[in-house]
Amino acid sequence: MPAETPIRPIRTAGVTRAVSFDLRPGAAERAALAADLGILGVRKLRFTGALAPDGAADLRLDANLGATVVQACVVTLAPVTTRIDEQVIRRYLAEMPPLPDGEEVEMPEDDTAEPLPATLDPRAVMAEALALSLPPWPRAEGVPPADAEAPDPGAETALEGGDKPFAALRELRDRLSEEDPGED
Question: Which of 51, 168, 170, 172 is the one with CA 20 to 30 A from 136?
């Protein structure tokens, strides 16, 4: 049977068996989290799971995130309520493989692996998992996507010599300076 639910961050060096957690933040903590995430509200939030040894020196977090969030519709700004149910897996490795050098690197295939921290705060993992689970473009029911037009791939853009917004002003300035060359 897993140990008691931790209230504070967990010292990872002391984890020799599964440590369970069941987080159910109160109204004030949910409101603060909503403000941090830039959303209208977090109505319900529960994060349950366990942190357990995974091999000789690594740890694995397996959890379930359940939340009801309210975001502004990207078209009308009306409140949009969304239910989120996600499985959260994190692997904390004592020895992370080296990251490739260079300005542009590809994301690793295993996006669950992270370096093993000295302490692990399940509340921080919960907040991160919630942020990653939020719909990026929430829309109110019945609201079609906003119309957006992109130029054809072969069309000239304003910066490449197409319609230049200040060309008419430049032309007017040049014409006025020709008509009135020495007066100020």
Answer: 51
For residue 15, the model assigns a pLDDT of 85
Phi, psi of 167 (to 5 degrees): -60, -45
Q: Residue 110 is which amino acid?
A: D
The domains of the chain are located at 10-96+109-133
For tokens 């590809």, what's the residue? 106
Global confidence as pTM: 0.71
Cβ–Cβ under 8 Å, residues 114 and 124: no
Tokens representing 114?
A: 């992270």
Tokens of 61: 């977090």
Q: What is the pLDDT of residue 99?
A: 65
* Nearest in space to 92 (alpha carbons), one of 181, 9, 172, 156: 9
What stretches in the chain show pLDDT beneath 70? Answer: 1-7, 99-100, 105-110, 146, 148, 151, 154-165, 180-184
